[in-house]
Design brief:
Length: 164
């Protein structure tokens, strides 16, 4: 047999080796996670039930699912060991207190414009109009207003046109 005919088989065997290796790695991580369970930690079973670990033995786990409800599960049926924050968020609906974080954006835009300086407050309360670069007809001198009207009338035609 030549090397060209053996090459597809070699590639197939290599791919199968890599796949089984990654699967074994995931299985080992799951076993380590289950072995690190302690009483009091929150867990999710593979069926989707959330409970607190009450007791851990070699192959089984005693879970507290509620007041007076204790369930015995195989260790393999534990899908995930949750952090306390995640367990409280899911089971009890307790969210992280966002109001204690100072660097978050406020709910209303009015607090973004508030300042502590009294000079800024005095400047903001000043009733002087802001010049936006536009001029009103009232502000224009009378002679420029008359010139503008004359220019507008000269552009109008009286109906006579040279085109026939």
């Amino acid at each position: 047999m030549s090397l060209v005919t053996l090459l597809p088989f070699i590639v197939l065997i290599g791919a199968m080796f890599l796949m089984t290796r990654s699967a074994k790695k995931k299985q080992q991580q799951a076993i380590d996670m289950r072995n690190q369970m302690q009483p009091g930690s929150g867990v999710r079973t593979i069926g989707g039930m959330y409970a607190t670990v009450k007791e851990v033995s070699e192959d089984t786990v005693l879970l507290d699912a509620g007041p007076g409800v204790e369930l015995l599960f195989a260790k393999n049926s534990i899908g995930a060991v949750l952090t306390d924050e995640e367990y409280n968020r899911i089971v009890h609906g307790i969210e992280h207190d966002l109001k204690s974080d100072a660097d978050l954006v406020p709910d209303d835009a009015s607090s973004l414009t508030e300042t502590d300086d009294s000079s800024d407050a005095a400047a903001a309360s000043d009733d002087t109009p802001v010049d936006l670069g536009k001029k009103d007809a009232v502000d224009e001198p009378a002679d420029t207003a008359d010139e503008a009207k004359a220019d507008a009338q000269s552009k109008k035609s009286d109906g006579d046109s040279d085109a026939k």
